[in-house]
User: Which sequence fits this backbone?
């Protein structure tokens, strides 16, 4: 008689009175996608396709029918998807949305789950199928990426040049130190050789000096004298004859 019973019929064979009517409601997991236009916190337009997998609570089907009706997707789910998505997107700037898609999807799903639970509708899963920006923003992002890549490349090349210059300077330093060390070794060797030679000559002279005697000197004199007297004899000429 127009009154909704406070229970649901299980799947299978059921009995009803002639004056009763049965409304069939699908409690399987259903999938629907919604296309939306949103705006980020920096007023960039974002086109999004949001997909949700949902099902109604079987135990509360009579409540859903009584309070919402059978078109609960259009009347409840779509408006709440729109509200959850637009509210979440508005908290991010466009650049953050590009790199934070997974985070955004979780934020939307958590909010949507809480909203639809108030209507006995269960969110099984949800995801952002597609997200697009205006051509101007996309070009700006690409230009920024190119600029950052060029900057990174320039920094890398500059660092490489610095490394090569430092390596060359280190090599030059090592070579200079090696050359200086070689000169020092050569100078030390030469000085040692001179000192050794001088020491040897001094030792030899000392030995000769110690070995000289008066008789040896006279002997050497006689041995080397040819027996001739000097051709010029002057006041300053002194001829010492052997004793």
Assistant:
């Amino acid at each position: 008689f127009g009154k909704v019973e406070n229970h649901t019929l299980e799947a299978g064979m059921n009995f009803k009175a002639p004056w009763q009517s049965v409304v069939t409601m699908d409690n399987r997991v259903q999938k629907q996608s919604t296309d939306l236009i949103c705006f980020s916190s920096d007023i960039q337009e974002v086109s999004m396709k949001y997909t949700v997998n949902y099902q109604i609570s079987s135990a509360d089907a009579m409540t859903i029918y009584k309070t919402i009706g059978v078109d609960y997707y259009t009347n409840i789910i779509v408006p709440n998807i729109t509200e959850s998505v637009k509210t979440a997107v508005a908290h991010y700037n466009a650049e953050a949305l590009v790199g934070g898609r997974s985070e955004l999807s979780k934020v939307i799903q958590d909010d949507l789950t809480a909203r639809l639970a108030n209507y006995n509708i269960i969110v099984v899963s949800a995801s952002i199928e597609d997200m697009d920006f205006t051509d101007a923003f996309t070009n700006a992002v690409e230009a920024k990426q190119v600029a950052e890549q060029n900057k990174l490349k320039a920094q890398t090349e500059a660092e490489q040049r610095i490394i090569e210059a430092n390596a060359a300077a280190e090599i030059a330093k090592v070579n200079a130190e090696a050359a200086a060390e070689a000169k020092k070794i050569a100078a030390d060797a030469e000085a040692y050789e001179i000192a050794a030679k001088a020491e040897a000559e001094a030792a030899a002279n000392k030995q000769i000096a110690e070995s000289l005697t008066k008789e040896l000197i006279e002997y050497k004199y006689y041995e080397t004298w040819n027996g001739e007297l000097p051709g010029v004899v002057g006041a300053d000429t002194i001829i010492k004859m052997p004793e």
